């Protein structure tokens, strides 16, 4: 009897212990659920602050806040497409300048003809001095980058060299690219083991057919693109630009986000670049918002000629037209954006000027107390196409100020403010000033 009572007591204690453990686990699970709920709420709130949607989620995942995008300038890069069919020969079949502005969601593709002459005396030009031969000399992308900067005046920092294999594999990874092939293409080159056989019309191209498309120039019988499309190299560059537009558009589809690992593997194996990953990751979240409707495409203006001692066909770019085109593509679009934002606001003749963005001279004075801020502001302004002619230090000040000294257009001043992400605009006109605008960096930057 006594033993039975002891067993009952023991069982009772065990049951109480089980109940306590169950209650403890319930508390742990409840706390865990609350932590997840709070963390999820904080994450969702941050996603909301970053603009919501896929872009906001990606921005939050890489550690951005609501001010990160505002501080990102326009991203410019030189794209080089290299054919690797012939051993020891790496000519650049595709040369383009690409730009992307995450704040305006506008982008540009400028084709550089592969025969563009980079030498000093066109009367004695050789094929060795064409821009598509520069990379093949020493396999140094920076030599082509230097030539493109001299031609365009854009001061591009980054390059991306894409080998043929990268294009083929990327197109296959994203499941092919739907594209409207402009004409029937029929060409064979046994020396390069290149065989192009495509029918005109909209179709899904795999990697192999994509390579055929972007490398086509003319058919076996000598016919090429129609004149209204752009014959020979002009037509080829147009096709390349339009195909890249479709690749970007179709790669940015939400379902391809989950193929990012495969895409990065292709890039790591077949792409050469000096773009730092930390720079690239800051722009990636906003690219998913991009629409190709906001993409402008053009070709470097100039003329083809073979009037030289070696009878070599070269392309001579028109310096005056090039300067005007660069201004239109890379600078005036931002001014137009600011003008749209200012529509409806009252303006007067005293605050309006026809000064263009690239012509404005800027002095930057550092009053923030942080030495790194000066260079950061200078880089942001230069990246947006402004000309910083003077820098220096001044007394520490709380607020960033943008001082209009030479009747600069109000839209440009507002664009400066958006570019650096801080500043109040003031007017203090001075005919003796050596700059158009003085920017004083404050502690609020």
Which secondary structure elements does this structure contain, and how are they paired or packed?
Layout (H helix, E strand, L loop, with lengths): L1 H48 L3 H9 L13 E8 L9 E10 L4 E6 L22 H5 L2 H12 L5 E6 H10 L3 E5 L3 E5 L4 E5 L2 E5 L1 H9 L16 H20 L8 H11 E3 L3 H11 L7 E5 L2 E4 L8 E4 L1 H24 L18 E6 L4 H13 L3 E7 L7 E4 L5 H11 L3 E4 L9 E5 L4
Structure commentary:
The chain has 445 residues and is an alpha/beta fold. The chain folds into two domains: 69-333, Aminopeptidase (3-Layer(aba) Sandwich), CATH 3.40.630; 357-441, Alpha-Beta Plaits, CATH 3.30.70. The longest helix has 48 residues, at 2-49. It is built from twelve helices and 17 strands. The strands form five sheets. It has a six-stranded mixed beta sheet, with helices on both faces. Strands 14-13-17-15-16 form a five-stranded mixed beta sheet, covered by helices on one side. Strands 5-8 form a two-stranded antiparallel ribbon.
Order of helices and strands: HHEEEHHEHEEEEHHHEHEEEHEHEEHEE
Taking all Cα atoms into account, the compactness measure Rg is 29 Å
Which fold name is given in CATH as the topology of the largest domain? Aminopeptidase
Low-confidence stretches: 27-50, 338-354
The helical percent reads 40-55%
């Amino acid at each position: 009897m006594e033993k039975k009572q002891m067993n009952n007591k023991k069982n009772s204690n065990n049951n109480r212990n089980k109940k306590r453990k169950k209650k403890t686990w319930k508390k742990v699970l409840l706390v865990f659920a609350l932590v997840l709920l709070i963390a999820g709420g904080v994450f969702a709130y941050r996603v909301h602050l970053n603009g919501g949607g896929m872009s906001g989620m990606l921005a939050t995942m890489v550690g951005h806040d609501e001010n990160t995008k505002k501080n990102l300038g326009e991203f410019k890069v030189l794209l080089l497409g290299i054919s690797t069919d012939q051993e020891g020969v790496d000519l650049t079949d595709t040369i383009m300048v690409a730009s992307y502005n995450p704040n305006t969601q506008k982008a540009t593709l400028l084709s550089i003809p592969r025969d563009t002459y980079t030498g000093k005396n066109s009367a004695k030009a050789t094929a060795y001095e064409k821009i598509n031969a520069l990379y093949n000399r020493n396999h140094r992308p920076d030599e082509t980058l230097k030539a493109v900067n001299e031609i365009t005046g854009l001061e591009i920092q980054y390059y991306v060299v894409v080998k043929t294999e990268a294009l083929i594999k990327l197109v296959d990874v994203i499941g092919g690219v739907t594209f409207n092939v402009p004409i029937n293409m029929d060409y064979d080159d046994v020396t390069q083991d290149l065989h192009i056989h495509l029918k005109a019309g909209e179709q899904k191209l795999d990697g192999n057919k994509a390579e055929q498309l972007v490398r086509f120039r003319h058919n076996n019988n000598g016919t090429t693109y129609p004149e209204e499309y752009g014959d020979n190299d002009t037509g080829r560059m147009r096709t390349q630009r339009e195909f890249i537009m479709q690749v970007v558009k179709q790669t940015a589809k939400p379902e391809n986000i989950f193929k990012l690992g495969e895409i990065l593997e292709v890039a790591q194996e077949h792409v050469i670049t000096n773009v730092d990953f930390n720079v690239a990751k800051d722009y990636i979240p906003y690219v998913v918002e991009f629409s190709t409707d906001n993409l402008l495409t053009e070709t470097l203006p100039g003329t083809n000629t073979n009037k030289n001692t070696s009878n070599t066909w070269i392309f001579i770019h028109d310096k005056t037209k090039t300067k005007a085109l660069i201004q239109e593509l890379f600078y005036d679009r931002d001014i137009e954006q600011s003008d749209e934002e200012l529509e409806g606001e009252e303006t007067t003749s005293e605050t309006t000027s026809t000064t263009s963005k690239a012509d404005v001279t800027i002095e930057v004075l550092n009053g923030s107390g942080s030495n790194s801020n000066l260079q950061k502001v200078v880089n942001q302004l230069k990246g947006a196409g402004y000309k910083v002619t003077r820098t220096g230090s001044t007394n520490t000040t709380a607020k960033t100020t943008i001082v209009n000294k030479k009747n600069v257009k109000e839209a440009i001043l507002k664009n400066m403010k958006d570019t650096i992400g801080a500043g109040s605009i003031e007017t203090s006109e001075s005919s003796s000033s050596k700059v158009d605008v003085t920017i004083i960096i404050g502690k609020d930057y």
